[in-house]
């Protein structure tokens, strides 16, 4: 798949595209619902959470493009649960114009591995976050 084809598959998270996001979730989940993201609004909530994290790190809105947020749905399974459970894995990409749903697929979660969510920053974003953190303390010499 070329870069241009990949970019065409991404869906911008706007109110106008909510049906497309829902269709992508439905295709990924099939009939599973218990540990999956089942509503488009849940994906929009992930984008809001990622945007909040970027803000908390002190990254200016003009410099947020390039960040990525990956999340796996569901909650931690009890250790007595001997089977894996179907869940939803999503990848969101931050562009200058906002958040985009880049990928959505089915995955499995196990009792020993709870679902996760993580933010990936560019090198410039990391430098800005570290600079802000270092401004909050002094080093004794």
Write the layout of secondary structure elements.
Elements lengths: L2 H7 L1 E2 L5 H12 L10 H17 L11 E5 L12 E11 L2 E12 L7 E4 L2 H12 L7
Antiparallel strand pairs: 1-4, 2-3, 2-5, 3-4
What can you tell me about this protein's structure?
34% of the residues lie in helices and 24% in strands. It is of the alpha+beta class and 141 residues long. It has one domain (3-134). It has a five-stranded antiparallel beta sheet. A hairpin with a 2-residue loop joins β3 and β4. The mean pLDDT is 88.
Please tag this protein with its features.
141 residues, alpha+beta, five-stranded antiparallel beta sheet, 4 helices, 5 strands, 34% helix, 24% strand
Structural class: alpha+beta
Mean pLDDT: 88
What is the domain total for the residues? 1
Distance between the termini: 54 Å
- Strand arrangement within the widest β-sheet reads 1-4-3-2-5
Strand content: 15-25%
Quaternary organisation: single chain
Q: What can be said about the biggest beta sheet?
A: 5 strands, antiparallel
Question: What coarse outline follows from CA principal-axis ratios?
Answer: flat
What is the overall number of helices? 4
Can I get a quick summary?
The chain has 141 residues and is of the alpha+beta class. The chain contains four helices and five strands, in the order αβααββββα. 34% of the residues lie in helices and 24% in strands.
